[in-house]
Amino acid sequence: MITWNEKQFLEDMPDIELFKRRVEKSLKDVMTRGISSAHGRDMITGYAYGELYDWDMYFENLFLSYFGISQYCRNGVEAFLEEQLDCGFISRTMGRKYPKPRHHFKPFLAQTALLGCRQEGKYNWLEGKYYEGLKKYLEYWIWHCDADRNGLCFWDGSDHSGMDNQSLRLGYDGVMEYEGVDLNCYLVRDLWAMGELAQELGKEKDARLYRQKAEDIAEKIDRYLWDEDTGFYYDRSEKTGKLNKKKCITGMLPLWLGTIPSDRAKRLVEEHLCNPNEFWSNYPLATWAKDEEGYYPDSREGECSWMGATWIPTNYMIFQGLRIYGYEKVALKLAQKTYELVMGETETREFYNSETGSGLGMNPFWGWSTLGYMMLYEIKNDYMASDLKQHCFQHVGKSAYTMLSINR
């Protein structure tokens, strides 16, 4: 099914034949069981029940990029933009299983568009309504989700963030209070991506404005969300102006931006990320610090738990941040532990117990957890698929699904 590019593979990749079988199965699953249609376009999802989610779409397409499959980026962006309201709002889900009519699409839409455009070298499809739609979607975040006008945006509640049950951090739906570290990091990257798209389309003024806005938010993350006493980034209440000092994996996401001072990066890594009493669990990284109120590494009553379980997309984002700041040994160890985690089950799983390594949630799962197979590949090949400046994408192999999906 996959013609592997052996030149891109290093011989010391552990369990290489098992790796190939697992990746081939994941690719087959997503291309045969994960296709949903919306607005006349085929789209991918990691969920057997067919729901389409915002940030999942970005990470799922990152996985497909390793095989030269890019068309689902454009399909997904166009389909979600077809759902856009006049005010710019786009619901973060598309489907009937879990509608989220009050949750604006997380800031990954421009990144997904850029990922597809970069791979295909084509940007003109964005001209007109889709480019304008992306502008309105970003403006909605900036103008409707920043009540105190300090330049940082807030989540509706924990469910909106995608970290469903972190109500201790963000409250429940309708709170609309907490300026999320995660949200504003995603927004910086999406504004950077929009700047890249504007540049490619010859919109120089827009490109400058988006890049400047991204830099402004990055500076405000440092100014408002950092706590010097504990050496960590926290969400901030717009109502009180105080930090909500709950140590969550999102407090380390500023590493992914590469904009924070090196001394702060050092504190994040040495005092928190590598701390076995906080995030460096048996199977890191725990999504909620072990010494925090409410921590548990498992799932209760079938919930999607972010209160201490390990999720692959957060590992992936922080893994890239470690590399950006030169923590190659820590990044390699995290990649190895993540590889061990996903290979430890007979099927790819939705998330994992951070202490035992047992798989949790959907079984099988062919969504964003597939990136757990690729982190070790990336660091061994000095490659970063999520780099927004990336023009040359590495393919671990080619698949028949590349042509089949184009001809659907």
From TrEMBL:
UniProt-listed GO biological process terms: oligosaccharide metabolic process; protein N-linked glycosylation
Mannosylglycerate hydrolase MGH1-like glycoside hydrolase domain boundaries: 54-369
InterPro entries xrefs: 6-hairpin_glycosidase_sf, 6hp_glycosidase-like_sf, Glycoside_hydrolase_63, MGH1-like_GH
Highest taxon of the lineage: Bacteria
Pfam family, any one: MGH1-like_GH
Gene3D superfamilies in the cross-refs: 1.50.10.10
Keywords: Glycosidase, Hydrolase
UniProt keyword annotation of Hydrolase present: yes
A GO MF term: Glc3Man9GlcNAc2 oligosaccharide glucosidase activity
Signal peptide interval: none
Coiled coil regions, renumbered to chain: none
Family: Belongs to the glycosyl hydrolase 63 family.
Protein name in UniProt: Mannosylglycerate hydrolase MGH1-like glycoside hydrolase domain-containing protein
Originating species: Eisenbergiella massiliensis
